[in-house]
Every structure is written in C-alpha cells, then in structure tokens.
Amino acid sequence: xxxxxxxxxxxxxxxxxxxxxxxxxxxxxxxxxxxxxxxxxxxxxxxxxxxxxxxxxxxxxxxxxxxxxxxxxxxxxxxxxxxxxxxxxxxxxxxxxxxxxxxxxxxxxxxxxxxxxxxx
Amino acid sequence: xxxxxxxxxxxxxxxxxxxxxxxxxxxxxxxxxxxxxxxxxxxxxxxxxxxxxxxxxxxxxxxxxxxxxxxxxxxxxxxxxxxxxx
Lengths: 120, 86
Prior knowledge:
- The structure holds 2 protein chains of 2 kinds.
- By secondary structure, chain A is mainly alpha-helical.
- Chain A has helices at residues 2-29, 33-58, 62-92, 106-119.
- By secondary structure, chain B is mainly alpha-helical.
- Chain B has one domain: Helix Hairpins.
- The longest helix of chain B has 26 residues, at 29-54.
- Chain B is flat and about 50 Å long.
- At the A-B interface, helix 1, helix 2 and helix 3 of A face helix 1, helix 2 and helix 3 of B.
C-alpha cells in the first residue's frame, strides 16, 4: 500500500515539475503578452496542485496536510484573479496583441471611464 | 525518491533560468509581472518537492505565505500599470 502511495506521489511531483518546465518554454514560444498570460497561469494552478498533492501524500500527520490543502485552495482562488488583473492592466496600458482582437469587450469599458473623467 | 527529487530539481531549475531570462529580455512591465508571477509558482513547486523529500513540515506554512504574497504583489503591479502605463 505504501509503495503504491510512494509511486503516485513521485508521479505527481514529476508531472508538476514537467508542467512548470513546459510553461517556461511556452513563455518563449508565445507571440504576445496575452498568450503569455495564458501560458503562465498554468503552472500557478495545475503544477502547484500536482506537486503539493505529491507532498501531501508523502508527509505524515494532519496539520501539514491541512496547511498544504489551504495553500492549494488559496492558489486556486488567487492565481486566476491575479492573471486577470495583469491582463486588464495590459489592455489599459495600450498593449495590443500581434493579431487584432476578435472581440474587445474592454473597449467599451475604457471609453466609458474616459467619458466620465472628461465630464468631471 | 532521491532520483525523483533530482529530476524535479533539474526541471524546476531549467524552468527558473528560462523564466528569469524572459523577465530580463521582456519589453514591457506587464510581461515582467507575468514572468515574476511564474517565478513564484516555480518556487512554490520547489518548496512542495522539498517538503516531499525532507518531510520538513514547517515548510508547509511557507507555501501558504508565499502564495499569498505572490497574489498581493501581482495585484499591486497590475494597479500600478493601470495608473501609470507600461
């Protein structure tokens, strides 16, 4: 039984590390800022879940396992929010992708805020 | 387990070097923020591997704290870019 758990933990650790490596290569392969945001969010969630899950299987006791579980939950809540904030900031700072947007829903938001600023 | 740890360490080290190179060569602040965000994710992965290998349960709290700090840092940089430009 413990040998099986050991193997599962090893596979999870290796998967997470490999995902981080693939994402680092993706930073160089992707053409513009927005696709790089897409690449960089993957290790922040899936790879961390894999490696921390592997660590949870290896570590004895309830207290560290709870802490690690909380860390995973926190990462799942915060990583997409942080990436979304950076993407929105990039849009506000007039960074544009290589090919034009198919749908640009933030265009209305920005012109609306500019209008209110002009009124004031 | 040692072999697994070495393999994970090598992969994470290469990932860290590549990400640092991206941070150094990128043209705007948003790209750098992405790179630093990912560097933190790689550090989290490394800490998890270290926990699994050394069974050091104190490091579990570090994973929690660094994850929170990374979020606060990213949001702060994003607000800064929105107000001041890239």
